[in-house]
Amino acid sequence: MRNEFDYLADLSKTDLMRVTIALAMETYALADRLRGLEEILAARGIDLSALDAPADPAAFDEARRARRDAFAERVLRPLLP
Q1: Looking at the whole model, is its pTM more than 0.85?
Q2: 54 three-state secondary structure
């Protein structure tokens, strides 16, 4: 029998909805901005096919890690005690 932590035991539905809404807002904002950027680049004749190539997670530098951590903090804040 594994001893698993129950992450949801002490969370209210309101906290879970705050996280869900924050993620939805972030996702929409990113998708909208990316669409706009791709439209601008394509209109200027830039080949975007390289965007579909796999990215190496090990390539993350310190600035990217900091942005990732800031994102996680912003979105998951409602889950913190």
Answers
A1: no
A2: coil
Amino acid at 26: E
Contact 45, 37 (CB under 8 A): no
Is residue 26 a contact partner of residue 75, using CB atoms and an 8 Å limit?
yes
pLDDT beneath 70, residues of the chain: 1-5, 7, 58-59, 80-81
Distance from CA of residue 5 to its chain's centroid?
A: 24
> d(Cα 26, Cα 30) in Å, to the nearest integer?
6
Torsion over CA of 24, 28, 29 and 32, rounded to 10 degrees? 180
